[in-house]
Amino acid sequence: MTIDELDARLIALLAAEPRLGVLECSRRLGVARGAVQARLDRLMDRGVITGFGPDVSPAALGYGVTAFVTLEIRQVAGHDPVADRLAAIPEVLEVHTITGDSDLLCRVVARTNADLQRVIDLIVDVRGVLRTNSIIALDTPVPYRVLPLVADVPRREGGRS
User: Fold this and answer.
1) What is the distance between the alpha carbons of residues 89 and 35, in angstroms, rounded to a whole number?
2) What is the pLDDT of residue 148?
3) CA Rg value for the chain
4) Which residue in 98, 118, 151, 157 is a FRET match for 2, CA 20 to 30 A apart?
5) Angle between helices 5-16 and 22-29 in degrees, nearest 10
6) What is the phi/psi pair of residue 119, to 5°?
7) 3-class DSSP assignment, residue 118
8) Spatial contact of 56 and 92, defined as CB atoms under 8 Å apart
9) What's the pLDDT at 1?
10) pLDDT per 10-residue tile (average), the chain, 161 residues
């Protein structure tokens, strides 16, 4: 379940210009339209490409504070009930189950540090949450990215698909 160089180039092209159509992608990549469509379909079917939605900046929406919050939870019913309740809080952007002293890691946003306290209070009010620990992000020198990984897969896998 790997990708080749053409898949990587197609993913990079769509990441840079997500509004491109299949015909324009085929022109820029120098391959047939049907080949591009078939590759897109295959990459989506395999879950390599998971969406084409716009990237949205929470800061541009007024949420200038990002924090990472670890949670210790009561695990009687597992992680899912707590995660489902956390998903109802709009400021909770991600929830991951983790190893170590805590059970869940959340990426949250808030308008200000004072507003972050409100968000943490909402998290603490979730049934099953025992304790939280918060770390405020000061800057994001390397934002979430996958293109370097995508570009490296064909090299590591010898170009097989």
Assistant:
1) 42
2) 92
3) 20
4) 98
5) 120
6) -65, -45
7) helix
8) no
9) 57
10) 89 92 97 97 95 90 98 90 97 97 97 98 96 97 91 74 45
